[in-house]
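Posting here for the record, re: phosphoenolpyruvate.
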Amino acid sequence: MQSRDVETGLVVILCPGLAGPLRRKIKDRLESFGGEVTAVEGTGRFYLEVRGEVAAIQSLVVESWPGVEKVVSLGGEFLHTAADPDRVPEGVNVGSVCIGAGTFSIIAGPCAVEDEQRAVRIASSVAADGADLFRGGAYKPRTSPYAFQGLGDAALQILQKVRAECGLGIVTEVLDPRDVENIAGIADMLQVGSRNMHNYSLLKELGQTSIPILLKRGFASSIDEFLMAAEYILSGGNSNVVLCERGIRCSTATNNVVLDLGSIPELKKRTHLPVLVDPSHGSGDSYRVPALARAAATVGADGILVEVHEKPEEALSDGAQALTLDQFGELVPQLREIRELLEGHGSGVPDDLVSTPGGEDL
Ligand code: PEP
Ligand code: MN
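Prediction output follows.
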C-alpha cells in the first residue's frame, strides 16, 4: 500500500448566514478543547477546519451545537475515501455514464447470464426503459458449491454481444484475482460481491487497474470496514470506485437481511465516493424491491443496482427477488420523479465551499 502520513482533522460547517459573534464563539469553544482552528470562507458561508488535537472534539456532539450545520472528518486512515469539503465529487465514469456527481444511475439485469437470446432480450428491454448499465453475472458466488455457478467465460462472450446489440455498458462480478485481467478486458465495470469485500488479494489486484469497481458492502461489515476495503483499491492507484449498500445479515429480519438505508447518509457524509443501493439482495423478495428502491432514491443514493428477469420463475439464481420487465418499466419513472422532486427542494451536501486564504477574519 502507498504510504502517506496519517493526519486527522475535522471540518465544522457553519449554518449559512451565521452572525460573526456566533461564529467566533464556536471557534473559541473548539480551541478550548485543544484544536488548531482555521476559519475558511466559502460562497455565502463559513467553515472551520480543525487540526491537531482533535480527539477530545471528536467525542463531543459538535453537530448539535447551535449554528453548526454539519461536521466532516478529514484524513485519519481514510486517506483516499474521506470526503473533501474543498472538492465537489466528480463521480465515476463508466463508459459514457457518470455515476455520482448529481446523477441517479440505474444498473439492471439478471443475477446470472443464462443464455444469449435471453440476455439480449432483458438488456434491450431495460435499456428501452431507461437503465444506464447492464449487469449480469458470469461467475457467481453461490453459498452451495452444488448450485449454478454461472456460465463463466461463455457468459463473458454473451455480455460482449449484449453490449454490441443494446449499447449498454457491462457490469459483471469478478471472484478471483487471477480472472481480473480477462474480465476487465470485456466488462466496463467489475463488481466485487459482498462475500469478497474482505478479499484483500482481490482488492489489491483491482487497485492495480483503472477499471471502475462496484464494491458491495460485506453483509457483516461496519461502515469503517467498508470504507477500508475501498481504501485498498484507491491506495493502489485506482480511484474509480463506486460503493453499493446491499443489506446486512440479521437473524430476526425477513429473509435474514436488513437493507441498511441509514448507511447512505452516513457514507455520503464521510466519503466522496458514489453510493448505490441494491434493493434486490437487500430484501430477497421482488414485492419489496420497488418500495426499497424508492426509499434509496429518497435517502440520497446515487443510484440502484437491481435484478430484473424476463421470467423470474425460470431464473437459475435469485429469481424470487427479480423484478419482471414490466415491474422495472414501472419503477424507473417513479425513481426519476423522486429525484426531480428532491432536486427541486435543494437537498444534498453543500458544494459551494471554497477555501479562501483571507478567511481568518471571522
Ligand atoms: C449479486 O449481486 O448477484 C450478489 C451475489 O450479490 P451480493 O454479493 O451482494 O450477495
Ligand atoms: Mn443475485
